[in-house]
Write a structure and sequence with these properties.
alpha+beta
């Protein structure tokens, strides 16, 4: 089987495993490594110290798997247009990707299935499953695999899926024919920059996490600064504003994505109920949920600010 046929087979396996998008990129040093280092030097990764670790690994994905030559890059759509948030005052304040199952587990499971099938097809081929917790500049890799073009809001844009999809990667020691990148999709549009409530999109294709609502509601530990609180717009976990205003997302066709719907165990939870949870109830209710990233203290803090309208005494 030649490299083109191998690439097509790998992409077909990815679709059969449940991924909506699939493409192949040849592995090489990252072209955006210098820009990434500059971003770190400006401190725009905020308190996410882990993003400054393993920079050399991020600069060359081949270092993550000795002998790696190709990456199968996949996209999993979470189709917010197909599933409205349940009634209540909590779920509309949660980023749409985070309302259901944790995508890290889902992507890993499905990529592991693809890896096993490719291992049977290509004896001796080694692989490594990656999601966004791996030291990998995945948006560049996904763009090179033809899954989209990086937009001015730093999200990957696809003509049919918009930016409502999540990425995963399977690094391979096999040589697969790469796909062609897509052309720029933003043109003169700057709606995302204009709509960002905090000005976190400081320039096209540049995000300062120090100003980003998603950073403050998910990654930041402790008190939210008085300067930032009025700008959170009642978000409890993440923020979808820059995606909601994107014309590509407004025309994206809805698809079924039951994994990302709010499960019955959490469907009736509201802001007051979230504040009332104890540690045991929180662990039980949010098992398998991406909201656990913020921890109970962070979710309580954010819920209290949402209820208070971002006014009053600092909440810890």
């Amino acid at each position: 089987m030649d490299r083109s046929a191998l690439a097509e087979r790998a992409k077909r396996l990815a679709r059969e495993a449940g991924f909506d998008l699939a493409g192949v990129a040849a592995l090489a040093p990252a072209a955006t490594a210098g820009a990434y280092r500059d971003w770190l030097a400006r401190g725009e990764h905020a308190g996410m110290a882990w993003m400054a670790r393993n920079v050399e690994l991020r600069a060359d994905p081949r270092r993550l798997l000795p002998g790696a030559m190709s990456a199968l890059v996949v996209g999993l759509r979470y189709a917010p247009l197909a599933d409205e948030a349940p009634p209540g005052d909590l779920w509309p304040r949660v980023a749409r990707y985070a309302r259901g199952r944790d995508y890290h587990d889902l992507v890993r499971e499905r990529l592991a299935t693809v890896a096993a099938e490719l291992g049977r097809l290509l004896p001796g081929c080694l692989s490594r499953v990656c999601v966004d917790t791996a030291p990998l500049l995945e948006r560049e890799l996904a763009a090179r695999a033809g899954l989209g073009a990086v937009g001015k809001n730093t999200q990957l844009l696809h003509p049919e899926a918009g930016s409502w999809f999540l990425l995963g990667e399977l690094l391979l020691t096999a040589d697969l024919a790469p796909d062609s990148p897509l052309a720029d999709l933003c043109g003169d549009c700057a709606r995302c920059l204009e709509a960002c409530p905090t000005g976190a999109l400081t320039a096209p294709y540049r995000l300062d996490a120090q100003l980003c609502i998603s950073y403050w509601t998910i990654e930041h530990r402790g008190e939210i600064s008085a300067a930032m609180r009025p700008h959170l717009r009642d978000w409890v976990f993440g923020c979808d504003v820059c995606q909601e205003v994107c014309p590509w997302n407004q025309r994206a066709a809805p698809v079924a994505a039951a994994e990302f719907a709010v499960p019955a165990a959490r469907r009736e939870l509201d802001l007051a109920g979230l504040l009332a949870l104890d540690e045991g109830q929180y662990r039980e209710r949010f098992r398998g949920s991406p909201l656990k990233r913020a921890k109970l203290a962070g979710l309580r803090r954010n819920a209290a600010l949402a209820l208070a309208g971002a006014e009053g005494e600092p909440v810890r």
